[in-house]
């Protein structure tokens, strides 16, 4: 199993990361996600990492890179569900996930995304 | 990684099954899900199996069993995202997933759940 499913919920895409990501899986996810953003016109991406007990610099870079790709495709990315121990380790390692927005859980992440979408619609004059 | 994360979205719980389930993982999921239904008062459970390329009789029974447990806890379960090839194989094997409601994708599953919740609220006189 080397493909992480991407679920569409309204204007948002939801990805739940459950497995320890290998390079290949991470690249596949980037490809799949950018294709899905283009195909669906989604402008929010929610990545749940509550199952991850370790987030190393590889995963950190991957999250930053997905967030950057989504941004140029006009979508906001929010990473949710980080375990407290993971947050502690990240900061101790000096990885601050710059450019990546976070929220405590899916519900708060969704709120953040819909607020971002309202701003976006106002800017676009919709 | 032997725990499948359960995400809460409003009155619904969302589970994305990505790995080939072992007995232990399946039992853990049943336990976690029933605890989460009780803790959150959720009355809808959405199980996404779009990543599964094979659904054998073990997974079939597990889905039926989760659906049964959720029902006695007053929650409706909908299985979404089944791949066409999986559906063909299931029927050929004589596994009809009795008692399990299905929908094409997460969005349709959510609609089904909110319809069930409206009926539920009317029945409860809410």
UniProtKB/TrEMBL annotation, chains A, B:
* Entries under PROSITE patterns matching the protein: STAS (PS50801)
Read off the CDD domains from this record.
Answer: STAS_RsbR_RsbS_like
The source's domain of life comes to Bacteria
UniProt cross-references to InterPro entries, sorted A to Z: Bact_StressResp_Reg, STAS_dom, STAS_dom_sf
Q: Which SUPFAM superfamilies match?
A: SpoIIaa-like (SSF52091)
Name recorded for this polypeptide: Anti-anti-sigma factor
Question: Whose protein is this, by species?
Answer: Piscinibacter gummiphilus
């Amino acid at each position: 199993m080397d493909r992480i499913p991407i679920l569409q919920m309204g204007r948002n895409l939801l990805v739940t990361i459950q497995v320890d990501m290998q390079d290949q899986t991470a690249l596949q996810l980037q490809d799949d996600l950018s294709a899905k953003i283009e195909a669906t016109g989604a402008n929010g991406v929610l990545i749940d990492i509550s199952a991850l007990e370790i987030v190393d610099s590889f995963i950190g870079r991957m999250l930053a890179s997905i967030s950057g790709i989504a941004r140029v495709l006009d979508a906001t990315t929010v990473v949710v569900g980080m375990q407290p121990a993971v947050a502690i380790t990240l900061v101790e390692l000096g990885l601050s996930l710059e450019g990546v927005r976070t929220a405590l859980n899916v519900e708060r992440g969704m709120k953040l995304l819909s607020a971002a979408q309202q701003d976006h619609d106002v800017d676009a004059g919709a």
